[in-house]
Structures are given as C-alpha cells and as structure tokens.
C-alpha cells in the first residue's frame, strides 16, 4: 500500500502495551492515582504538562481537551490578559460502526472495567476500558504524555482490540476553539457591574458542585486565532500557525503513526472552522490489537519555530517511535524524583505530597524567566503571577529543585521596568510590582473589580525576600550582583517612599494597606506587611555590602523603628492597628499565622508565638468561613514550630480532606470552592514538610535547624531526599531516637 512506508516506526509500538503493564506494576503505589467508574460523576480534570505546554485530562482519555502554553496570553481590548487556549492536540476518536467513542454517554456499562491512572513517577496518563456499544465491543487503551525530555513534544497513543471483524473509522483532529462567549470588559468593570453582567448571562459566581469549576464566568480562556492550517494525507501530517488575540504567535503540528499492515480503505483531510483532522477508514480483525499514535510538536513566539519547523519535529518523533520518546520522558521524570519527600508510615500523606510535587514540577521550567501562574497552565485567575509565585511556590522548589525555582526570581528581574513605571503611576520611588502580573510582560493586569488590591503591597517585600533566599541557598555572588541586587535595591527605595514617620511615637508606619486577609482592604499598619517590609530593608543592607555598594542610611533607620502592632496586655501581635475593628467574616479569620510562615518567620518569644497561634485558631472558628487552604497549610507549620507533633499531624491530615478533588488530587482553593489548580496550596503543603516538620530555615550562614524537628504519631520517618544547598546535596531524615524523641540527621551525598 502507498502509505505503508510511513508506518514502519509503528513496529516497535506494539511493545508498549506489555511495557506499560510492567511499569504500572513496578511503580511505587505512592506515585499512582487511579480513577474508576465511581468517579464518573465527580471527575475533576487534571492536566499533563512539562512547564511549557499542557493538555487537560478527560474521562475517556481520547476527548478534545483544552490546552495551554506558558505565558501565551490573549490581550483583547478592554479585557485583562488571560491565557489563550491553544488548539487541542490530544484528541483521537474511534467509531466501530455504531457511534463515535467521544460522543457516547459516560456510563459504567458502556465503559466497562474502567480505570484511568496518573503515574506521577513516569508523568503519564493511562486509560483502559472495554467500549461496549451498539452490539459491538472494543478493548481500549490510551496513553498520553507531554515530554519532560523534549519540551516541544507530546504524544497520545490509542490501542484498540475489536471483538469483531469489519470496517472502523478513526479521526485524528486538532481542535480549533471558538472565542469564549460572553466576554466581559473586565479591565473596566466594577465588582457590582461584574456580578450583574454574569447574572445577565445566565451564570452565577456561587460555589458549584464538583466537578463544575467555580468562577468560570470570570476565568475563561483567551482566544487563539488560526492564521493558516493544512494537512497531508500521504505524509499523515497536520499543521497550523496561530496567534493569540492581539498577542504572540504559536504553531502546532501532528504526525500520525499507524500500525503495520493496517488495511486502509481511505484517508481524508478535513478542514473546517473548528477542526483540522485526518480521517481514516480501515478494516480490522477480531481479537487483533491495532496501535495508533499521534505525535505533537508545539511552539510559541520566542520559544521554538513555526508550523514548518514543528512538522519536522513531529515527523522526527514519529521516526524515533513512541517507545523511545516515552523512555526518554520517563527517564527525565525519574531524574526529577531523585529529589523527593518520603513519608514512611502514612500512604495517604505520601500520595498527597507526591501529587503536590508532581503539579509543581509539571509547571516549572529551567533556564527561563517565566513565573508560575497562580493556577498552573490553566485559565484560573487568568494565569497571572501573584505573590503565590514568590512566597509559596518558590520556597517549595528552592531546596529540592533550585534550577526550577530560579525562573521565578529571574521573572522579577526581567520585569523591573514595568514595575518602575507602575511606581511612578502611584507616586512612589523604586519599583512597585503589581498584585497580578502578566507572566509574559510583567505589566499590571489586575481586574478592575479587584482594584483595591493595589494596596496589597506586601508583594514587593515578598519578592525581595525570595531574591535573597535564592542567593542564600545558592551562594551565587555573580547572580546577586547582576540580577538579585537591582531588584532588592529598588524595592528598598519603594519602602522609603511608602512609609510615614510618626514623630510623636518615634516610629515608621505604613498606611492604606490591604491585609493578606483581603477583606481588610484599607487599613493602617498591617502587621504582616510591616514585618515583611522591615525584613526586605534589612536584606537590602546585607546585599549592598556583599556587592560593594553603599546602603542607603534610611534603610537601617526605617527598619529599626518599623511599627509592628502588638497587644501588650495579651502578649500577642495584632493583625493591624488597634484602631481598626477585627470583626469580619473571612477565609482566614486572621493572618497572624502568616507571621510564622517560613520566609518571614518574624522573631518572637515562644510565649508570643503560642499566643499568636491560639488567637489564629480562635478567629478561624469565630470569624472564618470555608477556610482558604493557604491558611490551613500554614497551621501545620505553626504547630510544628511550637513543637506540637500531634497538632502538626492533625493539620496535615486536615489538608487531605475536601481540598483534594478526586481522582487526581487536584487542590482547590477551599473545600466548598472549586477554584482549582491553586499551586500555592500545593506548594504550601510541601513547605509544611520542608520547613515545618523539619524546623529548617534558610539563614544567612547556613541551612539552620531553627526549631526542633517533629514527627507525627504513626510515622516511622520523614526523609527530604537530595536537598541542595550551596552546591552540596544532602538527605535529611527525621526519625525517633531510642526514647521516642524526634531527631534530624543529615547525610552528605
């Protein structure tokens, strides 16, 4: 047959089924998450990603799913920047003669013996079932991955074993999405106008039942316009060039691998406004397995070439073969997992920490200057970079994968100019980084309805602290001088112009601030903000001396007299100035626990620390509603700092309840709110191990044991594998001595 010379790489593909089974057996169960037919009604999609591009998952494993690309943004006028959904690439559809697989209703009788496994160790999604419909049945196996070894590549493979003889149809589409409707002028709408517009569109912003995403009416995807597309039925390729609305260009290509000896009846190219596809009809034999593979290459402006280049990449991938590409991808993931968090004694906690690490690693890059979007490679929170990137994700990665933490601090160095321009806009000096930064440009894209968070200026201090932490963890003097120091210096200048001196009290204050407990959106002297500002000024003094610069004398003067509100009678900190009533119902109840968070770790006596923590717990009960998980994970850290292993273990367990959506442990913002893929919460859970239970802190002279380690009851040990600090690697293990007391040991590698 004329097509057969294109099919030769498929000879090796039949080995996949046996090797996939062997891998599943060999993989540590702590890396496996499996969905069954019981999850059909509550299936919360996960995603496969390599930090550069992604695809969402779906029940059948074959559907057309939304896909996204790093910092690839839609800039439609009057809207905020939002991630443009790139053409869906993972879809393969199959029709045995009675109906198309992807159009058939999800039912456990139709999708019999169903299982879908996310293998986090290998970075693969494998789906299997018997498709029983219209008096015909076919055994289906699907495997998809986005390459961790070759960042422009991905592949999905469908193996069918029909239980009949006859003709079948298959289609290999690239799905072209239409522009989301309705789109709102979010750049100019007030909160009340937004709510009214959402209601007028027949939607609500209320919490939704699983698996419906919350706030989809606001965080919808941007649009990629296809500029040119085509395919070749002889070469079995598809390609397209596109552009995000008013944004960057992108390209995709697919090369199809068919099983050897397939009796092909026809191959057609389908081109339409919503689908570009190769459609195949072939004859199959009962009991014989046929393996079809779709090789994908993707790129965007400033990262890779155009569609022609991608066609070459996809064809080269096909020539190499699925098994070889998969092996390279698995090897890359296995190398990542040499740095790990190993919990001996609680399999559920082990799976949770692995899933959180998996999501962080799936969204990180190396050698770039891109941050992490708040909700990963999804449209949640419009893909913007918040303090989540610097204060939550960055510390979680820093000791385990410093090379993957580095792009986060590099992003802030790369986007200093828009931060300078924003400072001028608000009449202050230095740099004023936005609450919501476009991940490509660094420009402020906070929605107008959230305009008040321009006062949530602790983000500036969070950024400076992260820059310093990177230096301390790596000891990279050249980086500090060229990249970190300019960021730290100009943030210090910002604080000089933002503080107010109270002559009567002989202290410096910061007015008109939004607290991390954001319902308090215009308060004086938020304790977290003032403490973080003081620390960033102290950092600037240290950094100046290291790079041979003269520190501004005002930095030390302000830091020495920075006001941190304190209740002398009750010997605890206040959330903010005592003139403001602390009486609102919020996600957090209070933000005092965040004074203990590892990057800030405000110095205080043990008694004050206990009092702060007790007040936080009280307020969470009295003034908290549907707690934000960023708060919940910090309670585990706070309990560990107090040496309370029982409470620390209980808070860790609490983080497994409700927040992890099945079947793939997708963390949502709160238990009731399905705003999903919040990377800060995954990172916070990781921090509760790396810095909480261990008591470790990154200090000026060492990775110090600032607090005694704790080990929850029932656990045999906790090991932080292959921690990296200043170029040296360690295994750090917490277990118990003969008397049952937790102890920490370091083993140099």
UniProtKB/TrEMBL annotation:
Bilayer-crossing regions: none
Record has Chaperone as a keyword: no
Keyword vocabulary terms for this entry: Hydrolase, Signal
Domain Glycoside hydrolase family 65 C-terminal: 707-737
UniProt cross-references to Pfam families, sorted A to Z: Glyco_hydro_65C, Glyco_hydro_65m, Glyco_hydro_65N
Gene3D superfamilies: 1.50.10.10, Glycoside hydrolase, family 65, N-terminal domain, Maltose phosphorylase, domain 3
GO molecular function, one term: hydrolase activity
Signal peptide: 1-24
Keyword Transferase: no
All copies of domain Glycoside hydrolase family 65 N-terminal, residue ranges: 48-298
Residues annotated as domain Glycoside hydrolase family 65 central catalytic: 380-587
Alphabetized PANTHER family for the sequence: GLYCOSYL HYDROLASE-RELATED, PROTEIN-GLUCOSYLGALACTOSYLHYDROXYLYSINE GLUCOSIDASE
Protein's UniProt name: Glycosyl hydrolase family 65 protein
């Amino acid at each position: 047959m004329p097509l057969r010379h294109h099919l030769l790489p498929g000879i090796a593909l039949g080995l996949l089924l046996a090797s996939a089974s062997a891998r599943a057996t060999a993989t540590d169960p702590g890396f496996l998450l499996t969905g069954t037919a019981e999850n059909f009604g509550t299936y919360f999609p996960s995603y496969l990603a390599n930090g550069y591009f992604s695809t969402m998952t779906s029940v059948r494993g074959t559907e057309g799913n939304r896909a996204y690309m790093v910092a690839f943004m839609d800039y439609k006028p009057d809207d905020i920047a939002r991630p443009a959904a790139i053409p869906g690439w993972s879809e393969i559809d199959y029709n045995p003669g009675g109906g198309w697989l992807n159009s058939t209703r999800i039912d456990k009788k139709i999708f019999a013996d169903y299982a879908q496994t996310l293998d986090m160790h290998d970075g693969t999604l494998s789906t299997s079932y018997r498709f029983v419909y219209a008096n015909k049945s076919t055994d289906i196996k699907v495997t998809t991955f986005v390459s961790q070894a070759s960042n422009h590549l991905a592949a999905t493979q469908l193996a069918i074993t029909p239980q009949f003889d006859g003709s079948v149809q298959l289609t290999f589409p690239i799905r072209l999405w239409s522009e989301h409707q309705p789109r709102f002028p979010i750049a100019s709408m007030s909160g009340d106008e937004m709510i009214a517009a959402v209601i007028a569109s027949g939607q609500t912003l209320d919490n939704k039942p699983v698996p419906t995403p919350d706030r989809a009416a606001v965080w919808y995807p941007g649009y990629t316009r296809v500029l040119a597309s085509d395919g070749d039925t002889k070469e079995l390729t598809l390609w397209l060039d596109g552009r995000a609305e008013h944004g960057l260009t992108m390209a995709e290509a697919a090369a199809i691998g068919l099983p050897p000896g397939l009796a092909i009846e026809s191959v057609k190219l389908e081109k339409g406004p919503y689908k570009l596809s190769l459609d195949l009809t072939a004859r199959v034999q009962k009991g014989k397995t046929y393996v079809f593979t779709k090789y994908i290459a993707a790129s965007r402006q400033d990262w890779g070439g155009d569609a022609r280049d991608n066609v070459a990449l996809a064809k080269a991938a096909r020539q190499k073969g699925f098994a070889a590409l998969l092996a390279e991808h698995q090897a890359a993931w296995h190398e990542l997992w040499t740095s790990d968090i190993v919990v001996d004694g609680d399999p559920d906690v082990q799976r949770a920490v692995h899933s959180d690490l998996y999501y962080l690693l799936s969204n990180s890059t190396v050698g770039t200057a891109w941050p992490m979007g708040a909700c990963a490679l999804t449209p949640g929170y419009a893909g913007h970079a918040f303090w989540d990137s610097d204060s939550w994700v960055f510390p979680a990665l820093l000791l385990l994968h410093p090379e993957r933490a580095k792009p986060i601090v590099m992003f802030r160095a790369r986007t200093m100019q828009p931060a300078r321009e924003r400072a001028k806009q608000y009449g202050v000096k230095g740099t004023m980084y936005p609450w919501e930064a476009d991940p490509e440009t660094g420009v402020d894209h906070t929605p107008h309805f959230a305009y008040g968070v321009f006062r949530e200026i602790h983000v500036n201090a969070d950024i400076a602290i992260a820059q310093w932490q990177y230096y301390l963890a790596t000891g990279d003097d050249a980086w500090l001088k060229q990249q970190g120091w300019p960021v730290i210096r100009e943030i210090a200048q910002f604080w000089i112009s933002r503080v107010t001196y109270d002559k009567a009290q002989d202290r410096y204050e910061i007015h008109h601030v939004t607290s991390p407990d954001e319902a308090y959106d215009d308060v004086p002297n938020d304790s977290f903000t003032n403490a973080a500002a003081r620390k960033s000024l102290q950092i600037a003094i240290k950094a100046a001396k290291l790079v041979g610069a003269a520190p501004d004398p005002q930095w030390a003067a302000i830091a020495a007299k920075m006001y941190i509100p304190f209740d002398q009678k009750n010997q605890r900190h206040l959330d903010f100035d005592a003139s403001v009533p602390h009486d609102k119902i919020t996600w957090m109840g209070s933000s005092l626990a965040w004074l203990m968070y590892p990057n800030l770790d405000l110095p205080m006596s043990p008694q004050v620390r206990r009092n702060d923590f007790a007040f936080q717990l009280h307020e969470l009960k009295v003034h908290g509603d549907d707690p934000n998980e960023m708060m919940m994970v910090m309670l585990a850290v706070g309990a560990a700092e107090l040496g309370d292993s029982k409470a620390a273990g209980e808070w860790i367990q609490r983080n497994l309840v409700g927040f992890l959506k099945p079947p793939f442990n997708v963390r949502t913002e709160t238990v009731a709110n399905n705003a999903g893929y919040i990377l800060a919460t995954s990172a916070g859970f990781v921090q509760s191990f790396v810095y909480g239970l261990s008591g470790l802190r990154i200090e000026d002279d060492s990775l110090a044991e600032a607090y005694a380690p704790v080990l929850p009851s029932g656990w045999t040990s906790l090991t932080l594998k292959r921690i990296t600090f200043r170029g040296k690697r360690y295994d750090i293990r917490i277990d118990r001595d003969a008397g049952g007391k937790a102890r920490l040991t370091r083993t140099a590698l």
